[in-house]
Amino acid sequence: MKSAIKARAQATILKERQTCLDLSHRIHAHPELGHEEVRACGWISELLADAGFEVETGVGGLDTAFRATAGTGALHVALCAEYDALPRIGHACGHNMIAASAVAAALGVRSVLDDLDLTITVMGTPAEEVIDRGGKIVMLETGVFDDVHAALMAHPAPFEAATPTMIAAAGFDVSYVGREAHASAAPEVGINAADAAVIAQVALGLLRQHLPRTSRVHGIVDRAGEAPNVIPADAHARYMVRAPRLSELREVQARVIKCFEAGALATGATMTVRGGDKPYAEVTHAPELVSLYRSNGTSLGREFCDDDPTYAHFQASTDMGNVSSVIPSIHPFFGVGTWPVVNHQPEFADFCATPAADDALIDAGTCLAWTAIDAVVDDSVREALLRR
Predict the structure, then answer these.
(1) Assigned fold of 2-166+283-386
(2) What CATH number should be reported for the domain whose range is 169-275?
């Protein structure tokens, strides 16, 4: 019975393969930044509405978020779709593939809902790359996920992993305001905001020796004056802090902020910090769902590399961690064979609309669909999820 249902779902995905790939390629060709994904949100919503899903846009108060639901079963499984891009390098994290794989899975599951006590929802979750304004966090806070029993998504990466290490992260902006002056004639009356940013960066460089080896601090200074003969009165930095768990992140973040305060203290500039109060949690992978996904991936010939030391240092962050802290979730990597090219490189973006990437996308969608089916058919898994 279960194998027949899964076979029918796969057949639907293969039938809709070109529809899903066209969606992936269209999003890839028109990258949009977080909270600006108007076209991607519209394309996905329209496709799902045409397929019979009940679509609600603007959920959670976010213009580019949506919720598309089919079925009325007791168990409610969400498939999370991301579709925002990165500045200048476009879909270098493959979110076009995440969106299309979620759609593929949803189409497959919808085709067999008559045989399942299941509700399936595609959650359109914007701005995963924004860090301090991640869409999933807002959607959680506004109740969009309240009736969901399990949340699934799959992310492209250079290698296959059922339980990749996804650590906590916080992003924030730091602004310094000083005072302009002639840089040669009267520098003594100026307050150099750019120097404040430099002092902060030096302090951060020295701090790194004393931070846990598992933490990360990185960022950019994206504004530091306008002309070399004017003392800069304005500087702006965007930084991120990461740690294995939220509890550790808060301590590291507090020490990092002190480095920025040092820049203000030394120069006399005024400092303002914005953001950092909605951090991404570490991802907690639900073991029973991971086991189902891994089994399904293996049956498709996917080779998982979770224990390969080559990739042990590969650690990223996502607002799916916040979802996983309250809802049983999975966030596997599906390998697209690019190693040593990695996410957030222009070469990775180029690869995310190739035939090899397309094949991986369809496999990921199939694995997600099969995992949702397994979750409702397996009595012990279903009952455990319904009790949450």
Answers:
(1) Aminopeptidase (3.40.630)
(2) 3.30.70.360
Interatomic CA distance for residues 161 and 340, integer angstroms: 16
Entry pTM = 0.96
CATH 3.40.630.10 boundaries in the chain: 2-166+283-386
* CA–CA separation, 193 and 210 (whole Å): 27
pLDDT, tens digit only, all 388 positions of the chain: 889 999 999 999 999 999 999 999 999 999 999 999 999 999 999 999 999 999 999 999 999 999 999 999 999 999 999 999 999 999 999 999 999 999 999 999 999 999 999 999 999 999 999 998 899 999 999 999 999 999 999 999 999 999 999 999 999 999 999 999 999 999 999 999 999 999 999 999 999 999 999 999 999 999 999 999 999 999 999 999 999 999 999 999 999 999 999 999 999 999 999 999 999 999 999 999 999 999 999 999 999 999 999 998 899 999 999 999 999 999 999 999 999 999 999 999 999 999 999 999 999 999 999 999 999 999 999 999 999 7
